[in-house]
Each structure stands twice: as C-alpha cells, then as structure tokens.
From TrEMBL:
Keywords: Iron, Metal-binding, Oxidoreductase
Pfam families recorded: 2OG-FeII_Oxy (PF03171), DIOX_N (PF14226)
Protein name: Fe2OG dioxygenase domain-containing protein
Family of this protein: Belongs to the iron/ascorbate-dependent oxidoreductase family.
Keyword Metal-binding: yes
Domain annotation Fe2OG dioxygenase: ranges: 180-286
Organism of derivation: Brassica napus (Rape)
Length: 336
C-alpha cells in the first residue's frame, strides 16, 4: 500500500496506485492530494473550462410513452431527428421505475465509497467472475444487492431500447427480423462510473472525448451534471441532468448500419469540485460474431456504401486498442 508521501507525479507509481492496486482516482482524492497529479493534467485543447454548457431545443426530453399512441408519428419524428443531428436525447416516461433509478444511484455511491480493500477483490485480475469486474461490472455472489439493481435496470430498459432501435431502423425503410435484431443487440453491459470531487477540475477531465461503439447507450446520470456532446459546429453542448429522465445516445454500430444517417455522438465528461458524481450506462452492442455494415436497402438508396462490412469482434478489438480520440474509432469501418 502506498503512503501519503508517495510520488504521484511519477507515472508508474500513479498507475500502480490507481489501477493495479485498485484505489482508483477516488483513492487518490481520499489520500488528501490538493492538486491533480501531472499525469492527469490535460493539454489545453482537452480541458473543459466552462462550468455550464448551453442547452437547446434538441435536449428537451421526449415522452417515449407516447410512441405507441395517437402521437406515434410525431414522437417517432422527434427520435429520428435527434438521432440524425446530435445523436443524443433524453427520454421520460420510459418504463423504468424512478425509484429504481434512485436506488441505482445510491448503490453506486455505496459501492465506490467502500474502503479500497473491499473493492480490490473485484479487480479484473482476481475477480472470481469473467463477466464481473471492478471498473466495469460487479461480482454477483458478493454484491447481490448491487447486482440486482443493475440487472433490474438492464431488464426494465430493454423494451424501450429495442423500440427506439425499431423506430430508427423503420425510418430508413428497413424491417429487421427478430433474430437479426437480437444479434445486433446481443451484447449488453451495465457500467457504474464514479467521478470523485476533483480539486482542480479546470486542469483535467472525467472522461475524454469518445463515441460509444455499440447500437444505443442508455445512461442514468445524477444531478451533478458535466456530460457534454459535440455539436456539428464544434461547440460542446451540455446534456443537463433531468430528474427521472434517461439519456439515450447513438453508438458507432448504428451509424454504420444507417450508412451515416444516424450520428454516433462524440461526448466527454467534466469533473467538478462540488461533489462526487455517479453515472450508470447500459451499452447494447452486436454479438461478437455479427457482421456489421450499412444495411443493403440504405446503400441502394444512397447510391454509396460509406462503410465496409466488418466483424463486430474486430471492430471492438480495434476500439479498445486505442486511447480515446473522439470518433476516430469509426475509421476502422470507413469505406476507402
Ligand atoms: O458519465 C457519463 O455521463 C458518461 C460516461 C460515458 O460516456 C461512458 O461510460 O461511455
Ligand atoms: Fe460514452
């Protein structure tokens, strides 16, 4: 175990403490540092100076419960437009109980606020489960409570996710067979992110610029704020916390399938000094053996295939082989 006098300016010491020993960035903050160690200081171009972004029409929440009622056309249009422009939107009346969302946020805080030695048993090198890892997931036998809420969240949001994907796919004139739909959404993962209070938020970032690789991401964020999405003109727009709402964003796979119609959104997260923040994303992605490429009907209509067909496993390997760099991940599938 490191002591308070450890030299966190040294990359290796820092890596061992934060990653290998599983103390996380939270452990660093808890050790009493008053400034972000040099290796975490971001180049000017990556820092997020403004505490608040602008908000605009595009982030007004969509009442998804209206999708299968008399306003179907209107609501479907809102979803399609948001997916085509920002690639991000919020939904309310989504069928996931608001009590469950509250419980989830509480459980995430409880999990991360445990002493480091309790969390260390879930580190990926030692975790008893292949699917369950500290930083990405949990140990079912050991963390029954947290596993149950996370699973509930996953289960109760899936119908909504599928419905949104259906609406988006229908709008490009395609009806996917049940089997293909299930293969395209066969990989599901719930993460819990914890952003400790940061002594110098202006120097660093919570999560760097990236896009998500899958179909759609559902994200529960708490009231702290700090999630930004890149707009076409290069500005960053904050997706404001909205109690009871869920954030939905388009991933790379859906951009590829739609031949570029839907925008996998480049996003990033600011840190703050007002309090710790938790967020809980559910990622849906294809089965690893699934081939992904622009849907043939769309290519025919567009007259060009903007992406080539790739095995999702290869897409994912490439995605995780590089550090975050905006939407560079899509280059792997770009047609030459
Ligand atoms: O914490 C957030 O608001 C977003 C996190 C995120 O982008 C991710 O986990 O992929
Ligand atoms: Fe993300």
């Amino acid at each position: 175990m490191e002591t308070m006098s450890a030299n966190y300016e040294d990359r290796d010491t820092l890596f061992n403490f934060v990653v290998k020993e599983g103390n996380g960035v939270k452990g660093l903050i808890d050790s009493g540092i008053s400034c972000v160690p040099q290796p975490f200081v971001q180049p000017l171009s990556e820092r997020i100076a403004t505490p608040n972004g602008q908000t605009c029409e595009a982030v007004q929440p969509i009442d998804i419960s209206q999708l299968d009622g008399p306003c179907h056309t209107e609501v479907a249009k809102q979803i399609v437009e948001a997916a085509e422009t920002l690639g991000f939107f919020q939904v309310v009346n989504h069928g996931v109980s608001v009590e469950l969302l509250e419980l989830l946020k509480m459980s995430a805080h409880e999990f991360f606020e445990q002493p480091p030695e309790n969390k260390a048993v879930y580190l990926k090198e030692v975790s008893p489960s292949k699917l369950v890892k500290y930083g990405t997931s949990f140990v079912p036998e050991k963390e029954k409570a947290i596993e149950e809420v996370a699973l509930d969240f996953l289960k109760s949001s899936m119908a909504m996710v599928k419905r949104i994907v259906e609406v988006l796919v229908e709008d490009v004139g395609v009806i996917l067979e049940e089997e293909r739909m299930n293969s395209l959404m066969g990989t599901k993962m719930v993460n819990m992110n914890y952003y400790p209070t940061c002594p110098s938020p202006e120097l660093t970032i919570g999560v760097g610029r990236h896009s998500d690789m899958g179909m759609l991401t559902v994200l529960l964020q708490d009231g702290i704020g700090g999630l930004y999405v890149k707009v076409d003109n290069g500005d960053w727009l904050e997706i404001p916390p909205l109690n009871g709402a869920l954030v939905i964003n388009v991933g790379d796979t859906l951009q590829i399938l739609s031949n570029g119609k839907y925008k996998s959104a480049e996003h990033r997260v600011r840190t703050t000094n007002i309090g710790s923040r938790v967020s809980v994303p559910i990622f849906t992605a294809p089965n690893l053996s699934e081939k992904i490429g622009p849907l043939p009907e769309v290519v025919e209509r567009d007259g060009v295939a903007r992406y080539k067909e790739v095995l999702f496993q290869d897409y994912m390997n490439n995605f995780f082989s590089q550090p975050h760099d905006g939407k560079k991940s899509l280059d792997f599938a770009r047609a030459d």
